[in-house]
Design a protein that fits this description.
Blueprint: E1 3-10, H1 16-25, E2 37-46, E3 49-58, E4 77-83, H2 87-104, E5 111-116, H3 127-130
Parallel strand pairs: 1-3, 1-4, 4-5
Antiparallel strand pairs: 2-3
Amino acid sequence: MPARKIAILGARSVGKSSLVKQFIDKEFNDSYYPTIERAYVKNISYRGNEYVLEIFDTAGQDEFSPLNSQYAIGIHGYVLVYSIASRNSFEMVKILRDKIIDYCGVTDIPCVIAGAKSDLELRRVSATLSSKLI
């Protein structure tokens, strides 16, 4: 089966690992343990084709963190995650996308932007604002 590699990037504590855990195991853990890095593998079917999906759940990034080469080389797509309860994490998404573009040298990079923590009442990023990010 063909493999596809996806990197999950975002600021610290935005819910990257929770999103991955929900996708892989269909479970949510409300405990927080900072992730250093973890890789998951899952077989998926998409448009009648079978794939081995490798997901790299990364440690939280900040604006000064260099982009690790393993998150750029051989990656087929990115999920850039922010917390709707954190305006700073939302602004970090653009910085991360710019880092990916700088590192890869191309602008046509498959990216999905995901707002996490929608169950929280404290919203700092409006749905209107998030739709205009990139």
